[in-house]
């Protein structure tokens, strides 16, 4: 289930449904299209998808048009009065190849609009300077939670989390969410827990959907943390991107730390920092005691080596180190907002979130 892959699921009525989905992190975009598949090789993408008109087709940006087309060569004639359509999406900002995403299949959704005006502390016409051009950041974003047929009501909790976390992060980083929409898609057959594709976050079904009436507090906490983790990547990871996978711990450690900040702010009744101690901190300690442990920063020289460091050291221990530094130095996290607004084109040292610390690991700030 890497690259562009086909899968199926059975809906609540027993009908077999088809899904086409992507998982490009870390170096699997090359399985779908020719590309320079490194995180610092950013480009814009204009994506079009051919699908049946009764299927949902999604990508990173909003749909701009769909036109009926003749049956493509090599494809069977559609049944039930369906037609083939070509669905075109708006051009993306400059982004890494591993963040490109496409999903096609039978889904239903719930949605809302999140008002971001005033959350960033900037003017309502919040702008970002990019290579001499100006990009106007949206004042609101449409948020949708997609689920397999018959299960969209199970996305209510996730929708609430993403609404609150978008506003929280926009204020925290001093920069509005930079895209006009954010889709969260529950995919029954998905290898990862979740993937932070820009504007189109994909989740394992159990990581996004829960029964709103019969779920435990633990289940609600788990979904909230996972959603908040991926939403934080929309800024730190997608807007601000690691120059190479050696710095993966900073990308994932920061998001793991930020998820606790967001959930603690948005759902104080969860007492989420207690869970931090019992899961993240203890997990980091136990993993670090093993002979197989490694430094949080690991030199990476191949795609296979990248996959090997998506582990508790990069996530949990990385999170603990960032939390420790922040608490020790009492530096305002909002300093990140200055970086996101002003420094898109610079190689900056690690942890400029903490101004007294100027270490040597570069981060490439590009939009």
How would you explain this protein's 3D organization?
By secondary structure, the protein is of the alpha+beta class. The chain has a single domain (3-45, 92-365), classed as Neutral Protease Domain 2 (Neutral Protease, domain 2, Orthogonal Bundle), CATH 1.10.390.10. 29% of the residues lie in helices and 25% in strands. The strands form 5 sheets. The chain has a 5-stranded mixed β-sheet. A hairpin with a 5-residue loop joins strand 1 and strand 2 (16-23). Helix 3 packs across helix 4. The protein is globular. 42% of the residues are buried. Mean pLDDT is 86; it is low at 122-134 and 341-367.
Descriptive labels:
Neutral Protease, domain 2; five-stranded mixed β-sheet; four-stranded antiparallel β-sheet; 17 strands; 29% helix; disordered C terminus
Give the strand content. Answer: 15-25%
Largest sheet: 5 strands, mixed
Named CATH architecture: Orthogonal Bundle
Distance between the termini: 28 Å
DSSP helix count?
Answer: 8
Q: What sequence of helices (H) and strands (E) makes up the elements?
A: EEEEEEEEEEEHEEEHHEHHHHHEE
Helix content: 25-40%
Mean pLDDT: 86
Low-confidence stretches: 122-134, 341-367
The shape is globular
Helices and strands: which structural class? alpha+beta
Total number of strands: 17
CATH class placement: Mainly Alpha
* Strands side by side in the biggest sheet: 8-11-12-14-13
The oligomeric state of the chains shown is: single chain
Radius of gyration: 20 Å
User: How many domains?
Assistant: 1
- Can you identify the CATH superfamily? Neutral Protease Domain 2
């Amino acid at each position: 289930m890497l690259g562009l892959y086909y899968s199926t699921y059975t809906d609540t009525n027993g009908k077999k449904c088809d899904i086409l989905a992507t998982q490009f992190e870390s170096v699997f975009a090359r399985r779908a299209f020719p590309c320079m598949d490194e995180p610092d090789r950013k480009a814009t993408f204009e994506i079009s998808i051919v699908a049946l008109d009764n299927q949902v087709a999604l990508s990173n940006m909003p749909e701009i048009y769909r036109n009926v087309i003749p049956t493509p060569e090599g494809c069977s004639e559609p049944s039930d009065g369906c037609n083939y359509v070509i669905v075109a999406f708006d051009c993306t900002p400059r982004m890494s190849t591993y963040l490109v995403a496409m999903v096609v299949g039978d889904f239903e959704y719930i949605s809302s609009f999140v008002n971001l005006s005033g959350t960033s502390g900037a003017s309502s016409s919040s702008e970002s300077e990019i290579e001499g051009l100006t990009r106007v950041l949206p004042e609101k974003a449409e948020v949708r939670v997609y689920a397999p047929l018959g299960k969209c009501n199970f996305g209510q909790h996730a929708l609430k989390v993403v609404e609150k976390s978008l506003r929280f992060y926009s204020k925290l980083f001093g920069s509005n969410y930079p895209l006009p929409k954010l889709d969260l898609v529950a995919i029954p057959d998905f290898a990862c827990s979740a993937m932070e594709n820009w504007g189109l976050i994909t989740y394992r079904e159990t990581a996004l959907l829960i029964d709103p009436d019969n779920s435990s507090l633990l289940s609600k906490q788990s979904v909230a943390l996972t959603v908040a983790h991926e939403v934080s990547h929309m800024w730190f990871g997608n807007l601000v991107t690691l120059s190479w996978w050696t710095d993966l711990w900073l990308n994932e450690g920061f998001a793991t730390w930020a998820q606790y900040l967001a959930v603690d702010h948005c759902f104080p009744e969860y007492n989420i920092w207690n869970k931090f101690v019992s899961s993240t901190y203890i997990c980091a300690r136990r993993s670090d005691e093993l002979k197989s442990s490694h430094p949080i920063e690991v030199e990476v020289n191949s795609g296979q080596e990248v996959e090997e460091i998506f582990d508790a050291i990069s996530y949990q221990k990385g999170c603990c180190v960032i939390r420790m530094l922040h608490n020790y130095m009492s530096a305002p996290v909002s300093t990140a907002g200055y970086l996101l607004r002003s420094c898109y084109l610079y190689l900056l040292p690690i942890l400029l979130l903490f101004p007294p610390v100027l270490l040597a690991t570069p981060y490439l700030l590009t939009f």
